[in-house]
Give the backbone structure.
Amino acid sequence: MNILLLGSGGREHALAWKLAQSALLAGGGKLLASPGNPGIAEHAELVALDVADHAAVIALCDARRIGLVVIGPEAPLVDGLADSLRSAGIAVFGPNQAAAQLEGSKGFTKDLCARAGIPTAAYERVTTAEAGLLAVRRFGAPVVIKADGLAAGKGVTVAMQLAEAEAAIAEIFAGRFGSAGAEAVVEEFLEGEEASFFALTDGSTIVPFGSAQDHKRVGEGDTGPNTGGMGAYSPAPVLTPELEGEAMTRIIAPTVKAMADAGMPYSGVLYAGLMLTAAGPKLIEYNARFGDPECQVLMMRLTGDLGELLLACAEDRLGTVEPPRFADEAALTVVMAAAGYPGEPAKGGVIDGLTEAESGGAKVFHAGTARAADGSLIASGGRVLNVTALGQNVTEAQARAHSAVGRVRFPTGFCRGDIGWREVAREAGG
Ligand code: AMP
Ligand code: GLY
């Protein structure tokens, strides 16, 4: 069959790399991607599409006989692209619009947790600055303030002081996030270590899909402004099998059931951001898609057929296929970003040395890259490359990723040298 992958980041390059190995493409099947990037182009035919134009996506699927659409990023999900494709009888990996509210509306998710008894921070939904200010004063500092809707990762303030919390409320209701900030959630500050947990579901069957930890701050030692993620590793050993079991039974399973009971079955990958508190795992947030760069480390470890799994999700028969299998090794990815990121990144910096970087077994996934007119590879975004390696443990994966980074020639780029530091320290401590 033919498969269409939507998206253009490092997450989608990793998905394209695994999908290109799928038995679904046997017998002349093709992988198409839109808009893609130069790395994705090594595995797929790139096609131009406006994903906001659902009729155009359906027309392409008909013309190119697409048997499965894989939606990478959240925006088309929240925009209802999966609904349009399903209505046209096209198999799609990714939740419908109503189900994507688990990512698209923080208030929706908190209310669902409250109804289903899912462990999460205590909260209040507020729709005016006045109510927001009352709520932050009632909670007291530290307190967390979140714009309700999609805010490109910038809508959350963890306020250690009341003044910071009040400023965040003022900013949201002054319209900084547009309609995403028409409403806000004020919530209890949770203490603990964070871990990401992934599960695939077709709305009823649920299978665990691995764990990871990422590094959101731009600077070493987890300092400086937040980014989309400067690196990640998988698995996250802090999420022990026991805690993972607890997350499945107390968080993921009741969520999938509550969504089905509410008439909006969730189909796709459910990405839970967890806080491992003294009282057990609590849900920080859900995403309705794979994490970026967490997906890159998951794909590096996945040994089975990604296409078969995603199609089984799309066709409501996840229970009939072999569950996901992952290598026991650790995978670690280092994001190489363009100078200036997470502010305005320097565009056009020339990149070279990727073949040498991959010679030792590392994989370099492209995120914000482009081809210049003369064919050379240049930076075209904030996060540019994801240099990813496997190892017997996180320490070895980190060393291998850095040896590959050392062979990349990207003078206008930078990266963190300490991705995985918590785990490296734990491994050193025995
Ligand atoms: P989110 O976009 O909801 O994942 O929030 C971004 C980051 O803010 C998370 O990764 C956490 O580090 C932090 N955060 C969010 N909610 C809380 C909370 N209730 N307590 C402590 N930290 C939080
Ligand atoms: N790396 C964080 C995310 O994908 O949301």
